[in-house]
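Extended Data, panel c. Modelled sequence:
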Amino acid sequence: MEKTNNCTCFNHPQTTGFFKDYDLDECGTLLWQLFKLSTVANRTEILSANEWFNLLSFYESLDELLKTMYMSYTQQQS
């Protein structure tokens, strides 16, 4: 397959190091654990409804970004 994207973002040491240290499943598991930890306390005592919604949106967006980056990274490496 011909590569038409000249992106060098996957050559960045933090990006390559991250995906060498953590595979996609582990990323999802760790994010989920962090998310569960954030819900241990009564969230209304520490977060407003808007802050809670933003946290949920952040988790979903970050999870999707990691999946996309991981898939792109592994395709670039093959």
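The chain has one domain: 12-77. This feature is highlighted in the accompanying rendering.
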